[in-house]
DNA sequence: AATTTCAGTCTCAAAATAAGACTGGACTTG
DNA sequence: CAAGTCCAGTCTTATTTTGAGACTGAAATT
């Protein structure tokens, strides 16, 4: 009765969710994008139980999303920082943010926005596009199954 | 000791995860994008316990991601179909798919790809871009907190 | 009419979660 | 440098969630 794992599924979405598909992981990653690095800072920001946090951080380190860096302010403590793999989750978090902004706030409710740090202008809307930049709806795409590696 | 809820957090990411941030919801949505509509089809595809599935489907309907449609093939059963809100999750699923493809497959391992249905060409890479389409890294953006609604 | 499929609900054991007490090393400060 | 505080976890325990499957009743099939 172990919780099911999608780690070896064919579908990349399933594999991705296996790594960052739980209640807390993406919030940890979001905080990491905001510059949070220390255990205590995550804990305070998220209000998560320390045991949960410890487990999740370990899992994310093991998954290669975060890594334990030795210092940064000279102290002997270590810090959790995003790896390249973790930084690549930026689009995922941004997509979730966009969807949340679009659908999960009441009409007059104040909401935050992701903006270009240079000029403060909101970032462009995320969309799935064809190679020629034409926007594609979900029913204008399909999943091409497992193209067998030709060269290898 | 109920599982924490992010439903009323300020952060759109947290709110989004409150709706679709559990182990199964996004896989259900992914299957819905693939055309799955019936309870039994979801159950068979995902291998999820029926109780889980029933709970999740109800939650997604309640959240307005799916809706219960009366028929489609004439039978008396009903079907779960994506609402507009649910269809807007396409980018999220696509972003997860891209990340999974990039980071969660071994070198020679065959993998699927999301392609333009028209010509079979892979869709463009998802990226966060500025208003002028310039790609933005995570540290070239910031979150502008809760701009208070001026008009209302 | 009998059988099978569908779409769930119900039950139960195992696992995950939340909350916080506890531990030991780091840091401060007098 | 000794006492007290902070940091980063681990451990414990009560509660909730999950996974697996038995069970139910309506719908479809034969």
Automatic annotation (TrEMBL), chains A, B:
Domain HTH hxlR-type: residue ranges: 19-104
InterPro entries reported for this sequence: HTH_HxlR, WH-like_DNA-bd_sf, WH_DNA-bd_sf
Keywords from the named record: DNA-binding, Transcription, Transcription regulation
Keyword Phosphoprotein listed: no
MF term (GO), any: DNA binding
Matches recorded under Pfam families: HxlR
PANTHER family found in the cross-reference section: TRANSCRIPTIONAL REGULATOR, MARR FAMILY, TRANSCRIPTIONAL REGULATORY PROTEIN
Protein name per UniProt: Helix-turn-helix transcriptional regulator
